[in-house]
Automatic annotation (TrEMBL):
It catalyses: UMP + ATP = UDP + ADP; dCMP + ATP = dCDP + ADP; CMP + ATP = CDP + ADP. It comes from Zea mays. Catalyzes the phosphorylation of pyrimidine nucleoside monophosphates at the expense of ATP. Plays an important role in de novo pyrimidine nucleotide biosynthesis. Has preference for UMP and CMP as phosphate acceptors. The gene is LOC100281735. This is UMP-CMP kinase. It comes from the Eukaryota. GO terms for cellular component: cytoplasm; nucleus. Its main location: cytoplasm.
């Protein structure tokens, strides 16, 4: 079914991409941002894990790819993100763990087309990331030494180039993810306070969204 027009025209929709290596604290910081700033948190990884748990059409394929630390086809993720955005009724979204590669970025642009206000990049050394993941203990199938190595490789080869793409557009805000979670959030809070203050001073209804997004092309 077409979802075209589901975002009211003229209404400002704020999207922030949250990117960082595996275990950098994306989910941790997103929870804090939700509490302080009223965003809806959409974790691409969580949406995929729900598909696996619900044993949906693509569940088995997604499970295998995640176990291998590989990326799931972009059309699947973008459809999940769009559905979650529309269902939320909110107009502020944190998109965690996305885009992970150039294909994700292009699929998002062509299907959803809401330009991110900024890209929060949580930067953290690899040794610290590995330590955190191996201590996380949330029963994730991909939190093992073999898969972690593959996830790092994907991050380096496919995700960092996307960060660089947005950096060239002046959209990246880097924070030092090696600090304590509260200290990282002090930096994150300053970034979001500035974003929302700027938006408020601009009237809050200027839209960076395409006027006629091709929402129906994958639905
Ligand atoms: N700044 C921090 N300092 C120390 N530990 C942290 C920090 N931020 C998060 N953690 C812990 O590190 C682990 C990974 O954090 P989190 O799940 O938020 O990362 P993530 O970027 O969402 O990871 P993934 O990409 O694997 O989903 C968790 O156990 C979390 O409690
Ligand atoms: N854009 C994305 C995001 C995630 N995946 C897959 O999910 C795994 C876990 O992601 P987290 O963000 O929760 O760490 C990831 O390793 C990929 O297999 C994806 O394909 N595309
Ligand atoms: Mg996470």
């Amino acid at each position: 079914m077409s979802q075209a027009g589901a975002f009211p025209p003229g209404k400002k929709i704020t999207v922030v991409f949250v990117i960082g290596g595996p275990g950098s604290g994306k989910g941790t910081q997103c929870s804090k941002i939700v509490r302080h700033f009223g965003f809806t948190h959409l974790s691409a990884g969580d949406l995929l894990r729900q598909q696996v748990q619900s044993d949906t059409e693509h569940g088995a394929m997604i499970k295998n790819l995640m176990h291998e630390g590989k990326l799931v086809p972009s059309d699947i993720i973008v459809r999940l993100l769009l559905t979650a955005m529309l269902q939320s009724g909110n107009d502020r979204f944190l998109v965690d763990g996305f885009p992970r590669n150039e294909e994700n970025r292009r699929a998002y642009e062509s299907v959803i087309g809401i330009e991110p206000e900024l890209v929060l990049f949580i930067d953290c050394p690899r040794e610290e990331l590995e330590r955190r993941i191996l201590h996380r203990d949330q029963g994730r199938d991909d939190d093992n030494v073999d898969t972690i190595r593959k996830r790092f490789q994907v991050f380096h080869d496919s995700t960092l180039p996307v960060v660089l793409y947005y950096d060239r557009m002046g959209k990246v805000r880097r924070v030092d993810g090696a600090k304590s979670a509260d200290a990282v959030f002090d930096d994150v809070k300053a970034i979001f306070t500035q974003l929302l203050t700027t938006q408020a001073s601009q009237g809050g209804n200027a839209s960076s969204r395409r006027s006629n997004p091709p929402l129906c092309s994958v639905l």
